[in-house]
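Page 42, continued from yesterday. The earlier attempt failed because a stray header line got pasted into the input along with the sequence. Redoing it now with the clean sequence only.
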Amino acid sequence: NELLGSLRRGLLFGVALQAADSGALQISKEQRIDLTDDLALAEERRSAADRCLDEAVAELDQHGIETCVLHGAANAALDYNDSGIRLYDTLHLLVSSTQREEAVTALVERGILRSDGAQRGSRRRTAFAFLSKDGVRVMVYTSLAPRHFGATVEADVLFPSRITLTPRSVTLSALAGEERLIAACVHARLN
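This time it went through. C-alpha cells are written below.
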C-alpha cells in the first residue's frame, strides 16, 4: 500500500494512528495492526538511537568537543507537544570541522562507533556516515549543507546560538528555532 510505504519512510506511525483515532484517516483493521507493529519496532529503534546519542554526547563532552544535535531527538523534544510521536532511528551530530577527526576517533576508541563502519573521506566533505555498535546510523556533519548545495553553514557559525535541553540523562545542545527550520528544509531537499 502506497500510504503505508510513505508512513514507513517518514516514521509517521504514531501520527497516523492518532489521525486514525480522531477519524481524520480511514484505515482498515489490518492496516491498524501493521501500523501498531511498525510503531513498536520504530520505538525500539528510537530507544537504541537515544542510548547511542546519550553515550556519544557524554563522550564528546568529556573530550571538550562541542556538538549540536540536528533533526531527530532535537526536533522531538523542541517541536512536538508529544515528543513520543516523533520517531527517528538515525543520529545527526554537528561538530566543528576542526574537531571532526578527534570526535570520530574518540567515539570509535570508546566503542560507540564501529571502526569497520567508519567512512573517512576528504576534508572537503561535510557529512560522514558511521554505524554504532548497536547498528544505529550516525551522521557526523561539519556544515548544515553540503558544499555543492551553494553555500555551507559551518558548525562554528551556529554554535553561539545553540540552545540546551535535557530530554533524558544527558544535556544536549540543539539549533535555535530558525536554524532548525533551515536545517530541516536543507535535509528535506537533499532527501
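Notes: The chain has a mean pLDDT of 85.
Reminder to self: strip header lines before submitting.
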